[in-house]
Specification:
With about 90 residues, the chain is an all-alpha fold. The protein is about 90% helix and about 0% strand.
Length: about 90
């Protein structure tokens, strides 16, 4: 009986140690994935790179906005044409 209890205690201790190790690894991973660390990792180091990235972002936003507006205008034109033809 004592032998079984000792085996169970040993298994519990080993399981607890493994869980503690996994928990430590997860906490380290959380620290690595914090917003501040991610920003430092992926933001360019040089001012010129940041400026170029900002300019490209603005150009992309402008292109997306113009596509959106063109699509909206096209939908309005099609609706107007359908309304004009359906009134006959």
């Amino acid at each position: 009986m004592d032998r079984e209890a000792a085996v169970l205690r040993a298994e519990m201790s080993q399981t607890r140690a493994e869980l503690d190790h996994k928990l430590t690894l997860l906490q380290e991973r959380v620290a690595e994935l914090s917003p501040q660390n991610l920003t430092q990792r992926y933001m360019p180091e040089y001012f010129v790179d940041r400026v170029i990235g900002g300019i490209l972002t603005v150009i992309g936003l402008k292109m997306a906005w113009s596509q959106y507006r063109w699509h909206q205008n096209r939908r309005a034109r099609v609706r107007g044409q359908l309304a004009a033809h359906s009134s006959w």
